[in-house]
Structures are given as C-alpha cells and as structure tokens.
Amino acid sequence: MSDRLSRLTELIQNLALASLSILLTAGALELIFRLTHPPHPELRQPQVRYVRVDADPARGRSSGYAYLVPNQQAFHLEAPVSSNSLGLRGPEIQQPKPAGRYRILAVGDSHTFGFGVAESDTWPSILERRLRRADGWRDLDLEVVNGGIEALSLDQEVQLFKDRLLELEPDLVLWAYYWNDMPMSGDPSETPPAAAAIESDDGASSPRPADRPAAGGLARIQGFLKKSYVLYFVVQRVPALQMAFFPTDVTRWKRATLEGRGSARIDAAWAHVARRMAELVSLAEEIGFELIVIPLPLFEQMTSSIYSRSLYQDRLETICGELGITFLDPLSEIRAIEPSYPRDFIPFDGHPRRRVYEALAGAAAAVLTARPPQSGAAAGS
C-alpha cells in the first residue's frame, strides 16, 4: 500500500513539475512576445463614421452598402482619415471630370480603403505616385481615386459603384476582389437548400447567426486568446485552430478556401460571383471603361507557401477569362518581399501595411506601364 501511495505521490509531483514548467515556459514566451511585438493599435478619437444605405428592391437597389460620412476628419485605428464630399477617402474629386484627365478608380473593401494605414500608404495612392513617374504616363493628367470602403461584399461594392462611383467617369476600374467577397452562408461543405439561399445573401456586414460571439467558457477562452500575444501569433497561422476558437461561417469558408475544397455550396457562391462580374462587364461595355480584376491574397498565402492547393485565385481567373476581363494577380510580387507579422501587418488584426501595398501597387504599375494608357472609349468599343 505504501509503495502504491509513494508511486502516486511521485506521479503527482512529476505532473505538477511538468505543469509548472509548461506555465513558466509559456509565461516566458508571452513576456518575450510582448517585449518584441507591438501592442494593440490605439483607437484614436474620433473614429471614422459611415453612412448606411439600405437595400431597396423597389428602387432597383438590390443590396445595401455604406460610404464615409462626407467631409470628415477622423481616425481609423491610429491612422488619420479625410473624406471628400462624395464620401470617399482622399482629396476632393473634380466633377465633371476635366477634359483630357485619365481617371483610374480603385474599388474594393478594407484592403483598398487602407485599414489602419495612412492615406499615403494605401495601394491606390502608391500606384498614382508610381504611374506619375513612369514613361508614357508622367505626361498624363492622371488621377487615381480610392473607392474602397471597408467591410463591403462584392454585391455591396457593385451597388455602391452603380449608385455613387460611376458618376466619376472612370477610364480604368481596378476591382480589388478579396476572398470573402462571395456569399458565405452556412457550412461550405454542405449542399445549399436552394439556389435562392445564395441569391438572397448580399454579404451584409452585420453578423449572421453563426457568427455571433460565443457564450460561457468559450467566450472567456476567446477573450484570453485576443490578449495573448503568443496564442494570437499561432492561431492566426493555422486555420484548424481558428476553427477551434472561432467556429463561424467566415472561418469555415476561409479554411475551405486555403485548402482548395470544392462543394455544391462553394460552386454556387462562385456562380454568384460570376454573375456579378458579368454585370460589371456589361457596365464597362455600355459606359466605356476598362476593367481589371485584382485578387487580393489571404494573410496565410502572403506569409507561407504551404497553401499551394488553394483554388481561390484560379477560380476567379477562370471567371475573368470566360468574361474577357484582364486579371492581375499580385501574389508573387507580394511573396517576393517575404512579408512577416507583425512587421508588415496591423498588430492583432492582419491587414497589410505599407510594404505589402507597395508590392501590390508595383504589380499593377508593371502591367499598366507595359502598354500605353487605354481610354475608356477605346476599352468599351
């Protein structure tokens, strides 16, 4: 009996020592990360405000969207933001467009708007500066307009484009597509109950039932995760861990995207994207502007080469090829600078910083400067 008790006591002591060792190691790593990594971004006040426009099918507005409160001086995280009278980020836009001006319009979500970075560090601003120095472009009356609004889906961007951006008379539209712009409702591995389930999902930014915050113990774990530098660093790199801590529609679709999965629901979502892209082609032909689609890579694709099975860019390129849209993939140029967290990404968020946007703008500038500027009329003829 005493031998058994002795062995049990020894086992308990060993487990206690092992647990203490793990806790001390984790604590040391946490301290190292906190000393060597930047803190959470400061929310400087006032934070930027938005005007919300609701869907109104009776008036032809199939999707709601948002734009910046016009003429405001505010902040996004720590970065200053100025909006013009049209509710876009950047300086005032002259309307009607002056004769002879070549206007490029960048459309997209937070990656185009410039989540948490200064206006001069957004890729539309960097692209304009590069083109102004390029042969064949420096003598142009050139303007690049930032039409990006954070948190919008493809449907919302198309509606914003038709309602407020077409009046800018762009000669060239650079449409920055991000992986979550497609409808993401339900488990991507399941068959959608009906085609209407995809058609009716306009990708609104309000939380869906599956995306609501967790309750109880899981919520406390998530709260600790957001505060722990080490756990955040690890979880952001492993989609399986993201699913464990944040089991939402978004993380399910993200994992499916990175792993190159296919399913009836994913196919239906891509078919929805194809219909929206076809709508843009029709507008380009009718109004007269050139259209280029730019797929923005995921954080995991930019910082790692292990997701070679991802079909995200391939599927979008196929859609663009079938519709005759110029496709510009900047992933190789971004990977070439070897971006890393947190140097090149917003701390505790993952949106890119200046170096990534410089690579993206460089890829776009290389394509554009390889040919003379094409007028909207020529592109639409």
Describe this structure in words.
- This protein has 15 helices and nine strands.
- The C terminus is likely disordered.
- Helix content is 45%, strand content 13%.
- The chain is of the alpha/beta class and 381 residues long.
- A hairpin with a 2-residue loop joins β3 and β4.
Concise summary:
By secondary structure, this protein is an alpha/beta fold.
Summary tags:
381 residues, alpha/beta, five-stranded parallel beta sheet, two-stranded antiparallel sheet, 9 strands, 45% helix, 13% strand, globular, disordered C terminus
Secondary structure blueprint with pairings:
Elements: H1 2-36, E1 50-53, E2 65-68, E3 73-76, E4 79-82, E5 101-108, H2 110-113, H3 123-132, E6 141-148, H4 154-165, E7 172-178, H5 195-199, H6 216-227, H7 229-235, H8 239-245, H9 249-258, H10 264-288, E8 290-296, H11 299-303, H12 312-323, E9 326-327, H13 331-336, H14 354-369, H15 376-380
Helix pairs in contact: 3-14, 8-9, 10-12
Strand order in the sheet with the most strands:
6-5-7-8-9
Q: Count the helices. How many?
A: 15
Indicate the structural class. Answer: alpha/beta
The low-pLDDT segments are: 200-215, 377-381
Mean pLDDT, rounded to whole units?
87
* C-alpha Rg (nearest Å): 24 Å
> Termini separation (Å)?
94 Å
Instruction: Write the H/E string, N to C.
Output: HEEEEEHHEHEHHHHHHEHHEHHH
How many strands? 9
Portion in strands: 5-15%
Q: How helical, in percent, are the residues? A: 40-55%
Anisotropy-based shape: globular
Characterize the largest beta sheet: strand count, sense, and whether it forms a barrel.
Answer: 5 strands, parallel
